[in-house]
Amino acid sequence: MALMPVSDALSAVLAGAEPLAEEKVGLDAAFHRVLARDLAALRTQPPEAMSAMDGYALRAADADKPKARLKVIGEVAAGRPFDRVVGPGETARIFTGGVVPEGADAVVIQEDTIAEDGHVVITEPAIKGRHIRPAGVDFHQGMVLLQAGRRLSDRDLSLAASMNHPALPVRRRPKVALLATGDELVMPGSTPGPGQIVYSNGYALRALVRSEGAEAIDLGIAADTLEATVAGIRRAREAAADILVTTGGASVGDHDLVKQALEAEGVEMAFWKIAMRPGKPMMHGRLAGMRVIGLPGNPVSSYVCAILFLVPLIRSLLGREPQLPRETALLGRDLGANDSREDYLRAQLDKRADGTLIATPVTQQDSSLLGNLALSQALVIRPAFAPKASAGSPCEILRLPL
Ligand SMILES: Nc1nc2c(c(=O)[nH]1)N[C@H]1C(S)=C(S)[C@@H](COP(=O)(O)OP(=O)(O)OC[C@H]3O[C@@H](n4cnc5c(N)ncnc54)[C@H](O)[C@@H]3O)O[C@H]1N2
Ligand code: MOO
């Protein structure tokens, strides 16, 4: 199979990726879940005109000059409305959140009053409408305030509660199973033998998967045998994974068995090898409802491919806009001409005093270097065959998650 352009590979990965089924969860559990349907307010907020202050509700015309003396006809507290009309020369004691009684069109704060026996003297002129929150000033019943596809923030939960929804329709979380491959891998904290490598890439990938709102299933490390790799693929199916992510064994070496194992299990391969750097040997295929993303083993390659393909796939399954936003920055250093592979260069971001973003690619771009991946805040995207570019010229960037 020929190297596929990145945009074609992304289209193939996202082809037919429909949002998963919806489920209803309580408000607290809905944090960072993706709303499955537009959410309309079930009530008007505030339902009636309410006082924003503790004070006196009155007719502004009765107290438009200082020292007006009004008769106190009763008290209105939050949740305890008052059924009388405030007539001329009258006032009602009112507290914050109290329903403004009929007849009253202003509230004077209590600091601007002097209480006298059964009366109150208003020391500052009243202003019509002052300290009153009109009915529906926040929202009206039926208004759609939260759209389908929105990832719910902490503030959204309070808004939904205020709209009177005790539970919200959200998308089921995609199940993402991660299977590492490689005889050489040992777990962090162990004492690696000669030539052994500490397993690392699954940690970033699982954290990324979870932060994208999917469920990460760790299938551990498969040895470089067809049987072990096939067994891992079967475990992903048994776990009803929506996505199987494999790492390593994607290249052309004698021990790179992932493609062979996937095909043996009946995975229909859509592509193998992309015209990009890092990440060239990435592959993609499908087996019934399970989508497979075979990532290269080099830790930077696996992470960059996950940002470019896995994140958009998860977002599509959640009904979100798949693409991560791209921005423009200025190059912080000169770059040579690019070859036939689209380049994703780890870069550090700085902001000039005038707000201009400067993206400086780190000098070492080898795909095994996790140190400079961790220090980078963005990827600079260089199209295939881009001519050389000097410092200060514009470039496209993709910010890495914090
Ligand atoms: N003759 C060719 N050789 C290679 C090509 C090629 O086109 N022709 N492509 C290179 C590119 S580009 C990449 S990327 C790598 C990807 O190879 P694999 O996907 O087969 O990955 P492995 O060989 O299994 O591992 C590569 C490297 O990464 C380490 N690794 C693997 N998994 C993990 C893990 N979970 N945590 C930490 N480190 C891991 C592994 O030990 C290797 O050092 O192929 C090139 N070769
Ligand atoms: O594509 Mo590989 O990911 O360059 O190292």
CATH topology of the largest domain: Molybdenum Cofactor Biosythetic Enzyme, Chain A
Arrangement of strands in the largest sheet: 7-4-6-5-9-8
User: DSSP helix count?
Assistant: 7
CATH superfamily (homologous) name of the largest domain: MoaB/Mog-like domain
CATH class of the largest domain: Alpha Beta
Please describe the biggest sheet, giving its number of strands, its sense, and whether it closes into a barrel.
6 strands, mixed
CATH level-two architecture of the largest domain: 3-Layer(aba) Sandwich
Helical amount: 10-25%
Mean pLDDT: 97
Beta-strand residue percentage: 25-35%
Low-confidence stretches: none
What is the radius of gyration computed over CA atoms, rounded to a whole number of angstroms? Answer: 31 Å
Small-molecule binders: ligand LQZAQKY5, molybdate ion
* Count of discrete domains: 4
Count of beta strands = 26
- What overall form do the CA principal axes indicate? elongated
Structural class: alpha/beta
Distance between the termini: 36 Å
Pathway: Cofactor biosynthesis; molybdopterin biosynthesis
Family: Belongs to the MoeA family.
Function: Catalyzes the insertion of molybdate into adenylated molybdopterin with the concomitant release of AMP.
Catalytic activity: adenylyl-molybdopterin + molybdate = Mo-molybdopterin + AMP + H(+)
Q: What's the SSE blueprint?
A:
Layout (H helix, E strand, L loop, with lengths): L5 H9 L7 E5 L12 E2 L9 E2 L3 E4 L9 E9 L13 E5 L11 E4 L3 E4 L2 E4 L9 E2 L10 E3 L7 H9 L4 E5 L3 E7 L3 E2 L10 E2 L2 H11 L3 E8 L3 H13 L4 E5 L10 H7 L3 E5 L3 E2 L5 E5 L2 E6 L3 H19 L8 E6 L10 E10 L5 E5 L8 H6 L2 E5 L11 E6 L3
Parallel strand pairs: 5-6, 13-16, 13-17, 14-15, 17-21, 19-23, 22-24
Antiparallel strand pairs: 1-12, 2-11, 3-10, 4-6, 4-7, 5-9, 8-9, 18-20, 20-21, 22-26, 23-24, 23-25, 25-26
The structure holds ligand LQZAQKY5 and molybdate ion.
